[in-house]
Structures are given as C-alpha cells and as structure tokens.
Design brief:
homodimer, alpha/beta, Rossmann fold, 7-stranded parallel sheet, 8 helices, 12 strands
Chain lengths: ~300, ~300
C-alpha cells in the first residue's frame, strides 16, 4: 500500500518528512510526483482536485487534514471508502479558550474601549450583564466551550440537528428548536460542521430572530454566514457585533468590508491551530490501522457529512 | 446625630435622595450647605477638603465612598474615629471578570489583532502559552480574581505585605518574596491598596525583575506605577505590554502618552463600578449601627491604612 498526500495551497515538505519518519516502512507520495496511483490506499486530503478520486482504484480510506471534512466532495467517493478526520484534544481546549475570551471581550466592550483609546476618549460604561450563550453545533468543540462558559457563570444553550444529551447546556434541535433558542440568545457561537444543510444558516431570517443586543461569534466556517445579511444587520443596528475567525475566502481579501467595520472583531483563523506533531501522530495511527486491517479511528458518518 | 456627605467632583443629588429615603429619620447634609458641623457624627467622604476634619468636634466615624480609603488623609483624624470602607461583593465578581478577561486578552493577543485588523493584515499567530499570573495584593478582590484564574487553568502567585494563607495560590511576602515571585511571572496584576509603602511600587527596579514577555495589569490605583519607568520598559522591549484601568490623574489627560501607545490597553476606570443601591445599603447599615451604638462593619486597620 502507499499513502498519497493531496493537500493543495500549502508547502508539504515538512509534513511529509515528519510522516515518513513516523512511518519508515510506508511509501508516502506527493500529488504532483505520484508515479503509481493504483497503489494508493490512503489519501491525506485538503482541497484535493475533484479529478483525483477516479484515478484511485484501490482507495480504502481518506483522512481530512482538519477537524472538518468539508474540503472533500464525499459524493465523488466510492461508498466503501472510510472517511476520517482530525480530532485533536488540544484543539478543543484552544477553541474553548477562544470562545470564552471573545464572549468576555464582547461582554466587557473591549473593542469599544480600544476604539475610544485611539480617540483619547474617556468614557466609562458598565459591562453588559448579558450572560446567555447559544451554540450552533454541539460536538467536541461545542461541549468543551460550553463547559468553560458554564464554569464562568454563563448560561449555555445548544442546538444540534439531532437530539443530544447534556447536563450543562439546555438543548434544542430541529427548526422549531432553533427559533426557540434564538429568542433567548445574547451571544450566538457557531461551531457547526459545514454541510449542505448548514451552509448559509446565519442569514437574514436567522438574524431577525435574535435580540438586537446579540453578538455573533463564528469559529466554524465562513460559508455558514451570508455576508451581505450580516453586514446589513450590523449596519441597521439589528445586531450589536460580530467576532469572526473564519471566512469563505482566506486570507480575507484586503478590500473586504469586514476589515474596517467597527462592529466586527476579526481574527485570522487562529482560534484553534493544530499542532502538526499531534496531527501527524493521529494520521500515522490510522495508516498503521489500515495496514493491519484494524478499524480506523475518528471515522465520520458519511450520510451526515461529519 | 447628623450625617455629612463630603464627596467632591461629583453631583451628589441622586445619592443623597436615595440615602434619605433609606434613612428617613436621619438628617443628611451636603458639604456646601452644612449649617451645623458640631452635629455631624458620620461623614461619607471622597476627596474631602483637608480643612474639613478640624471643624467636626463630634465626629465618630468616616466611611470612604469606595473600596480604598486613600482619598482620606488618616493623619488628620482623631484616633478614636472609626474608618470604614465599601466592601461590595459585586465589585469582587466584576473585578475577577475584568482580570480574567484582560489576562486572556493578552494571552490571545487581542490588541495585536485589533491593530492588524485596522491595517487589513492577515497574520495568524498562536496564542501565548504563558499561564502564570502573579498578584500584588491578596485581599477580597485578589482572592476572587485568583479563584477565577485558577479555575481557568492559570497558575496563581500572590504577594502581600504580611504572610497570608491560601489553598489556591502560591503565596509570597516581604521584599525577598517579591523578588522570588517576579522571576516567575507572566502577568503581573496589581490589586494593592494605595499606601505610602505601595505607592510607586511598580518602578524601574521592579520592572527589571520581570521576564521580558511579562505583562502588567493595573486595576488598583494609578499611583502604584512610575509612569516614566513603565513607558521606558515598554519602549525598550523589556516588557510585552500593559493593561491599565487606573491613572494618577483621571480622566486621563488627552495628551498623555498612554493613549496612543501600541503596547498599552487602556480602559477608563471601569473594571469594577459600584452599584449605587448596594453601596448605599451598606453605608445606611453603618449609619444605623453607629446610631444604635453597635460595632460598625468593614472597618479598616488605621495603622496599616487598609
């Protein structure tokens, strides 16, 4: 068997060297230099060209090079190919810290004071009392964030497509559940996987169901938001602010209206940066499992898409 | 007995009306209109003129209109006058939230990203790993902050003049203890009372004992810091940054170099704003205790000055 690294838009030299040192007896090929597509059984993929999949008659498993699998068009893959993703515990810890920090920053008006500081303007105001955080999505990252928020005095709601269980958050599911939750939301944190049913979920209709003092925090994917609808809500004071870490196009183009919008706090997709060594360890583990005929870890449900 | 409100630089109309409604049978006078200084037994003071105290032959107690008593020159008061201060539990909660938020904001580089946003610059960086917070001062506010920091994964050190006890923080005291603590400090939070021995405690000598990546967070009094020494340390990269909520002169003059300094995050003395109703309840309680000959609450130790 051989492994193919099909990650585009990134220099993979270091990644492949590290993988090879962990897997000395496995042949690891790069997309551009691949000599033997028929020998490939495992692909590590991120934004791989859609034409790739039909060239791989012996493909058995694809690992996404990230927590989401939205960079892989699952409809192009044979049904018996396993799809796995990265589950990095440090990612959940970092994400929870980012979410807590930015909810607190919105509560304590950090960006407002930062703007006032530049204008040498002294204008003390009380922090907002708002303390209800609603999460769209309640997977590993959502649960870790909920724990941290609850232990810091926030009330946490969470919405997921299918019913889930939790002792710390009030749970909602389905369309009706979403409407109920939005009405009691001070901070809406998006941590959904990107699928056809969650794409553009933060649109005019959703935004209109939020209180005017609400804040959006998006740490999932840029495509969850209809940009024009978000800007419209901010510009018409139907929303207090937004903290955005992810964008449909990254790096965010320098002429994009998000950059200079006073209601937007922007960070450059840094909420949870994978540690390369721990990611490689997990990928190598799955490659060895495949070789040994053992079940893979962190498989997704292909019908759900996450 | 009568009560005198001697708070300068502030409109006290609402305060006095609220006090009067809580204390319908007590005469409450304003400094400017006071007819009978000899009848005054209780003064509520903030930046009262120093000439006031010798006019009050029957003074029994002075309440500061704040958590600190540094606005009152204790040397001018007879020894048997009790000095009390405001101890507002909400203040401790708000202060702990401010300290946690701004430690996290420094850890996750929020100001750095704000600046990059204004420049439309996409430059992801990992959050700092630094997680040791050292507190100067370990009273109610310090303890509340330490609890919150520890429950969010920080290691907390605390320094006080006299030895104290704690199960959550590593404690230091005295000059030698201060030196030991500074060497292992990533974030130095000042929550000291302002006394002659703590004034200008954050000076060149102290700053030189901190690691270069350290950050100062001052939520006590502006006078704790030697401004020129702080600016010098920041300008020479011997300190990573400072979050300042308090200043020797407030509002901070618009030409002050703090305003536009990229290493300084400035907030307008808003870390813990007293809720007027809960403050008045506490003052009224002490006035009624004095009238009934009962011991007052929240007395300070006049020799320590806090």
């Amino acid at each position: 068997m051989s492994v193919l690294v099909a990650i585009t838009g990134r220099d993979n030299t270091k990644l492949i060297a590290k993988m090879q040192s962990q897997l000395p007896n496995i042949r690891i090929e790069q997309l551009d230099d691949c000599q033997d597509f028929a020998g490939v059984e495992f692909v590590l993929a991120w934004n791989a060209p859609t034409s790739l999949w039909q060239k791989l008659p012996n493909l058995k498993a694809v690992s996404s090079f990230g927590a989401g699998v939205d960079s892989i068009d699952l409809s192009l893959l044979p049904k018996d190919v396993e799809i796995v993703r990265i589950v990095d515990e440090q990612l959940a810890t970092d994400m929870a810290e980012y979410v807590l920090t930015h909810v607190l920053a919105q509560k304590l008006r950090l960006k407002e004071y930062y703007i006032k500081q530049q204008q040498s303007e002294w204008k003390p105001k009380r922090a907002y009392k708002y303390n209800q955080v609603s999460m769209l999505g309640f997977g590993e990252l959502g649960r870790a964030s909920a724990h941290s928020l609850v232990s810091n005095g926030f009330k946490v709601n969470a919405w997921s497509r299918t019913p889930k269980k939790s002792t710390i958050a009030t749970l909602y599911h389905g369309d009706e559940g979403l409407t109920d939750m939005l009405a009691q939301t001070d901070y809406l944190v998006c941590l959904l996987p990107l699928t056809s049913s969650t794409e553009e979920i933060i649109n005019k209709q959703l935004l209109e169901q939020l209180p005017e003092h609400a804040v959006i925090i998006n740490v999932a994917r840029g495509e969850h938001i209809v940009e024009a609808d978000l800007l419209d809500a901010l510009n018409n004071q139907r929303l207090r602010g937004a903290t955005l870490d992810v964008f449909a196009s990254e790096p965010l183009p320098s002429e994009h209206p998000y950059w200079l919008h006073p209601g937007i706090t922007l960070t450059p997709h840094c909420a949870a940066l994978s540690d390369l060594d721990s990611v490689i360890k997990q990928i190598a583990d799955n490659i060895l499992r495949l070789k040994a005929g053992e079940p893979l870890i962190n498989c997704i449900n292909k019908q759900q898409g996450y």
